[in-house]
Amino acid sequence: MTATPLGRRNGRSLLTGALCAGLVVTGTGVLAGCAGDPDAGTNGVGKLSPDKIQSRTRTAAQGASAVRLAGTVVSNGTTYTLDMRLKDEGGTGSVTSRSGTFRLLRIDDHLYLKANAEFWGHQETDDDGSVDTDAAHKLDGKYVKVPSGDPTYRRFSGFTDKDVLLDGLLTLHGTLSTDGHHDRNGTRTIRITGDKGSGGTLDVSLEGSPYPLRLVRAGNAGTLSLSAWGKDFALAEPDKGETVDYGQQLPTS
Question: How far apart are CA 13 and CA 63, in angstroms?
Answer without folding.
Answer: 32
